[in-house]
Amino acid sequence: MSLLSDLLNLDLSETTEKIIAEYVWVGGSGMDLRSKARTISGPVSDPSKLPKWNYDGSSTGQAPGEDSEVILYPQAIFRDPFRRGKNILVMCDTYTPAGEPIPTNKRHAAAKIFSHPDVAAEEPWYGIEQEYTLLQKNVKWPMGWPTGGYPGPQGPYYCGVGADKAFGRDIVDAHYKSCLYAGINISGINGEVMPGQWEFQVGPAVGISAGDELWMARYILERITEIAGVVLSFDPKPIQGDWNGAGAHTNYSTKSMRKEGGFEVIKKAIEKLGHRHKEHIAAYGEGNERRLTGRHETADINSFKWGVANRGASVRVGRDTEREGKGYFEDRRPASNMDPYIVTSMIAETTILGKH
What we know:
Blueprint: H1 4-8, E1 19-26, E2 33-40, E3 53-56, E4 69-79, E5 88-95, H2 107-115, H3 117-122, E6 125-136, H4 169-182, E7 186-191, E8 197-206, H5 208-228, E9 230-233, E10 248-253, H6 255-258, H7 262-275, H8 277-283, E11 306-308, E12 315-317, H9 319-324, E13 329-331, H10 340-351
Parallel strand pairs: 1-5, 11-12
Antiparallel strand pairs: 1-2, 3-4, 4-5, 6-8, 6-9, 6-10, 7-8, 10-13, 12-13
Helix pairs in contact: 2-10, 4-5, 5-10
């Protein structure tokens, strides 16, 4: 008699050419991920060869009930670590039946910025450090914390090892391997300063692919926590008080910054970011004012400052970049719940296209 796990692990290639494609999109809150699956006649590696699809936008907060159809446009394909074989995960964006991007489709505008000749010529690279918190399912309290109580103060948990310091490592490692399997350029993981909080890094990724890869990495993590019976939180300050918040530090460089003399280009770019500080903050995630207080390795939300190796700055330049006179910088302002399409394209728009 077959067990459920046996059936879940059936190898479809033994009996059919058909594959399963899981279409993934961002829902109406701008942070909720949705997905549904369909059968495709054979393996596909080019998203333009996949059919468009539709869904009921009135059930995701993206369309009215009397005109509820939203169309999914496949944009990026990843291998499916859950179904494996030749099955795929498909990152999609969302349009009206007339072909207009719906308001929550932030990818469309980002793709326009990245396809601008001046931006494309600079080959913007991104590395995004995604922090998140694992919560106990029934009490919505961080993993490893006593119910209704608090653990010992911060200090031993960052990159910590041991049953009293690291909570949820099996989820973290499952996610790491799943992202590598999927073809996401995940570059590392670590335990964070607050217990129950972790980080993964995606990049370097060029242009629009940074957003596609980060959203799909979030989707895979959400699916793994679903299996584990744990709640995933991207709240930028999940616990008030003397506990670190959660951010999505965004590392960035252009071709000019990576060349000899690039440090001067970096300084000019940072100056441009300072001129648009308010606009960037407004677009860098909800609830960020609870995180950017000037404490816990953050700069105050109302001020802009940069520095070398300064984790209390809005923008940090690494010692290596200063020493070599070229490289990259880190925008430390984005919150953990930021939209990577908005953040990556806005940095390019401000620093390359010089939008004021």
